[in-house]
Write a structure and sequence with these properties.
Number of helices: 26
Catalytic activity: L-alanine = D-alanine
Oligomer: single chain
Keywords: Isomerase, Membrane, Pyridoxal phosphate, Transmembrane, Transmembrane helix
InterPro entries: Acyl_transf_3_dom, Ala_racemase, Ala_racemase/Decarboxylase_C, Ala_racemase_C, Ala_racemase_N, PLP-binding_barrel
Organism: Parablautia intestinalis
Helix content: 40-55%
Bound molecules: pyridoxal-5'-phosphate
Shape: globular
Largest sheet: 9 strands, mixed
Number of strands: 18
Distance between the termini: 31 Å
Protein name: Alanine racemase
Number of domains: 4
């Protein structure tokens, strides 16, 4: 199994595709050779738009054919997003269009034609095509599904059949499109078909639109997205070879059509379909993290490059540089691309920072350090054998860090197996689009077994009677068998090998894995080490017995965070790491030992709500527990025990950092507020930020400190951080 799976290749190619579109609109080689320019811009660069359609298909259209519950929601969400973008782009180009006289003879028909098919500016047809194509594929998915509308496609063969059917329909549409595009010359003037096309061209200028061109590529994207991406180098070579051959054939096709004067337009070719398939398949075999920044930048290059063409031409005119900046097509192209990238990066940055601005107004929040998380993942992967994969524990909202945020970041790092405590946690992750294996470590009520299947979740067999219930449900369920080797919490007892064997034989259980949990692996002292040895031996004995009895060897795992550090030799198929992934261990002492390897991922911050002076002898907070001995300045922080700041830190046990100064808690921590003594810090004011966990200046408060102070472990401090806190990635 591979540890990497992501869409880095696709995201990187988006930028290239955007450059290709800019090339189509500037003809970079025209100063040198018309044929070369035709090859570049009318053939090679024609893969750009189908590529964009396919990516949309993979991430949007595919879901129309899988989980119907989400399809409509997904459809609307996409349409809304695109409509906003399209609207913005229309506004940006409105003045230019007016100046150029595009809208002179405006009437209802023309508005309809421009909005739905041609675009209000030449490159904007793409947005309407996307929306129309997505709408069409959505309709197709509904029609094909018919009465199965309410249930989830549990059967991927069924799903592929459905996509295949829709593909056939859209293939016909594509053929119709071809005849109005590159193959128009095959239609004889005066025939019925020819006349039908001519009527059509009164509604749209080209057949390369959302009706004839977009659906087939959207569905191809959905179809390819079904398959798990694959980093097999052989596959990469095959796809790459396929790409080169089909590009060559497409060039032959295009030049032939051009020579015989067949082309009315040059956007659609037969070979464009295999070329696009091989292109996307090749890109899916490339590694690399996916990148939202690249996605945004490519989008804005697409939207803005025609404006940059105008800017370059105007600048050239003013500076009397038309000879070089415009007349040399290659220089012109690079100038346009350069400015487009600059503008796109600027806009992306602006949008990014406006998001951050928003959060800067928060009351109390958690910051997740992406780089710390990445570092911990790398460090843990180094400590486990190559064949062993991380199965991060995302239970309890990822130990308070925010399960979805963490899952997304981890997925970006190629993690594709997770464990959670409950069914509900698993469902939440699936609903937000988390893929890969999700193992539920705890109990799921039998009434809820159907949800295990609907959301493709893997259930832990918590003991033998539970296995009987799971089996009795009557439909196949993926499970990992828990084995109790001495913790005596969950899992079937290891002595009962016969019962475990019969679990393996149950016909409705698909036993993907078997595991145990070590309960004393955190201490390297004799009693604990002996106990761990007993547990480990008992577990392997069960595994071996099962293997001897012909059950095969499902995936096995027994390490959690401490196991990875203290018993590295136990790395098997998975390491179920929780606390270490978040950059700390359960106690301050253990965390200190690993401080060069693990970096704390979470910071907890709160706003200063109000600053005031109090006078000697006055009380602060509930219960008259604090009486000022001198005149002081105090600040109320907008965070309390409802946010997870435990009340045990009241009365000076807890501290906060403001501008690098350490201040201590005064009186009792309230539900929503905490008061601190800021007498010694000049200039503190409402709106300032206080750090409850994390760094400020040279000072640091770690979750371990809070644990130590309140007599618990880091795990509890973190996992109790409240849902009211905003969580953001920095
Ligand atoms: C929570 C949990 C883990 C993760 O433990 P950490 O010590 O946080 O790494 C692993 N396995 C099981 C069964 C768990 O319940």
């Amino acid at each position: 199994m591979d540890k990497r799976q992501n869409y880095g290749g696709l995201d990187r190619f988006r930028i290239i595709a955007a450059f290709m579109v800019a090339a189509i609109h500037t003809s970079p080689l025209l100063s040198y050779s018309a044929d070369a320019d035709f090859l570049l811009t009318r053939v090679l660069c024609r893969v750009a738009v189908p590529f964009f359609f396919m990516v949309t298909g993979q991430f949007v259209v595919r879901d129309f054919f899988t989980c119907e519950g989400k399809a409509l929601e997904k459809f609307w969400k996409y349409c809304k997003k695109m409509a906003v973008l399209y609207g913005a782009a229309i506004l940006i180009y409105l003045p230019v269009g007016i100046y150029a006289g595009h809208y002179k003879e405006l009437n209802a028909g023309l508005v309809f034609r421009m909005l739905l098919f041609d675009g209000t500016f030449y490159h904007l047809w793409y947005f309407s095509a996307c929306m129309m194509g997505v709408a069409l594929t959505y309709l197709m998915s509904r029609l094909i599904k018919g009465k199965r509308l309410k249930t989830c496609a549990e059967n991927s063969a069924e799903m592929e059949k459905n996509i295949g059917f829709a593909l056939t329909v859209s293939g016909f549409l594509y053929v119709i499109g071809l005849l109005g595009d590159s193959y128009f010359g095959f239609l004889k003037e005066g025939t019925l078909v020819y006349n039908v096309y001519m009527q059509g061209f009164r509604i749209f200028s080209y057949t390369r639109n959302g009706l004839f061109m977009a659906p087939v590529f959207l569905l191809l994207g959905a179809e390819i997205g079904n398959r798990k991406s694959n980093f097999d180098p052989l596959k990469r070579q095959i796809n790459c070879a396929g790409l080169i051959v089909s590009l060559l054939l497409m060039a032959v096709e295009a030049f032939t059509l051009r020579n015989f004067g067949m082309q009315r337009h040059d956007s659609m070719y037969i070979m464009l379909i295999p070329t696009s398939i091989f292109l996307v398949k090749t890109l899916l075999t490339l590694e690399g993290p996916s990148s939202k920044i690249l996605r945004n930048i490519s989008l804005w290059i697409y939207v803005l490059h025609p404006a940059m063409i105008i800017v370059v031409r105007a600048t050239a005119k003013i500076l009397h540089l038309t000879g070089i900046l415009v007349n040399n097509s290659l220089v012109h192209y690079f100038a346009v691309v350069f400015l487009s990238v600059l503008a796109a990066a600027g806009i992306s940055k602006l949008m990014e920072s406006s998001k951050k601005e928003n959060f800067k107004c928060g009351r109390a929040w958690i910051e997740i350090s992406k780089s710390a998380l990445r570092q911990n993942v790398t460090a843990l992967r180094k400590r486990i054998p190559d064949e062993c994969r991380l199965m991060p524990a995302l239970k309890a909202n990822a130990y308070g860090h925010g399960a979805l945020l963490i899952a997304r970041e981890l997925a970006d790092m190629g993690v594709d197996a997770f464990c959670v405590a409950s069914l509900e946690e698993g469902i939440q992750l699936r609903r937000q689009g988390i893929k890969g294996e999700i193992l539920i470590l705890g109990y799921t009520h039998p009434e809820l077994f159907p949800l295990l299947r609907r959301y493709h979740l893997t259930q832990t067999v918590v003991d033998f009677p539970y296995a009987v219930l799971l089996n009795r449900y009557g439909r196949k369920i993926h499970v990992h068998i828990g084995v109790d080797t001495g913790m005596h919490r969950l899992g079937e007892r290891c002595e009962n090998v016969d019962r475990i064997y019969s679990i393996c034989q149950m016909k409705n259980l698909i036993v993907d894995g078997i595991f145990t949990h070590l309960c004393a692996d955190d201490k390297l002292e004799k009693p604990e080490m002996d106990y761990t040895d007993l547990q480990v031996n008992a577990f392997y004995k069960v595994v071996e017995t099962l293997e001897k009895k012909g059950c095969g060897r499902p995936e096995i795992h027994l390490q959690s965070s401490y196991g990875v550090f203290n018993y590295p030799e136990l790395g098997e198929d998975y390491a179920r790491t929780g606390i270490a992934l978040y950059g700390v261990l359960s106690t301050k002492e253990d965390t200190e030992k690993c401080k060069d390897i693990l970096k704390p991922v979470l910071s907890l911050k709160a706003r200063v709500a109000s600053v005031r002076n109090i006078y000697a002898g006055e009380n602060v907070g509930y219960g008259l527990k604090f009486k000022a001995e001198r005149d002081m300045k105090i600040a109320a922080l907008a965070i309390g025990y409802a946010d997870g700041l435990t009340r045990g830190l009241s009365g000076g046990r807890g501290t906060a950092l403001i501008e690098g100064h350490r201040v201590s808690v005064v009186g009792r921590i309230c539900m929503d507020q905490t008061i601190v003594d800021v007498s010694d810090i000049p200039g503190v004011k409402a709106g300032d930020v206080a750090v409850l966990i994390g760094k400020s200046g040279d000072e640091e408060i770690s979750a371990c400190d809070l644990a130590k102070e309140t007599g618990t472990i880091t795990n509890e401090i973190l996992s109790r951080l409240g849902t009211r806190l905003e969580r953001i990635v920095v």
